[in-house]
Amino acid sequence: MLECGAQACGGFFHDWLDLPGSHDIGFPVAEISVDGSCVLTKPAGTGGGVTVQTVKEQLLYEIGDPGNYLSPDVTVSFLTLRVEQAGPDRVRIAGATAARRRPLTRSAPPTSRLQGPRDAHGFW
To answer: How much is the pTM?
Structure first.
């Protein structure tokens, strides 16, 4: 939901021009909980909107098979996903489950000789 910039805040929404401040759509922020759920929001004062509809449209764009979405470390099922409005420009996403753990493969070393582990760039 975060990787595509302003899309979840209305940039991919079918009526994006009807959103307030469509010329200055904000970027999404995820408040992630320890249970794996999150609240998607955006900075105050930015345009666009975080609604159930904008989030669902972005999810549909991202997901090919909702029962077997390939993430870097697990295959995820979104079949039990819940998307609920949690306030103005706040959407709670919960209920995804890991279908199975995937084997990890790296195409780059986990550290950089320049900056050490904090500068790691790995491709899974």
So the answer is: 0.75
